[in-house]
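Hi all, long-time lurker, first post. I run a small reading group and we've been trying to get comfortable going from sequence to structure in the token notation. Rather than ask abstract questions, I figured I'd post a concrete chain and ask someone more experienced to write out its structure so we can walk through it together at our next meeting. Sequence below, copied exactly:
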Amino acid sequence: MEHPYTVALVIDTVELPAVRRIEAEKRCAESLERALGGPEAVAESLMAWRSANDSAPVDLDADTMALAARWHCVASQASQDGIRNLGEIAGAHFDFRLQRG
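-- Answer (accepted) --
Happy to help. Here is the structure in token form:
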């Protein structure tokens, strides 16, 4: 079964061996899923965060706002977990995307 989201490590300044990139992406995804409760919960939270960024606060319900706020905190921690052991890499960040279909 395909995951409902993807995590991609983005680095513009250095080349990173594929195995290290994949390990970092896996650590980040595992951290997200542990904190949020699995792949579907990650996708739901990411969707809420995107809705919150694309809408006026008055157009959002309390559940969406709470999920979006949680996503922000959890994604920040998961990103830190993902890049640990990579050393200092300027501009490194993770790109989170929902799968289509």
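A couple of things your group might point at:
The two ends are 13 Å apart (CA to CA).
The helical segments are 18-36, 39-54, 62-83.
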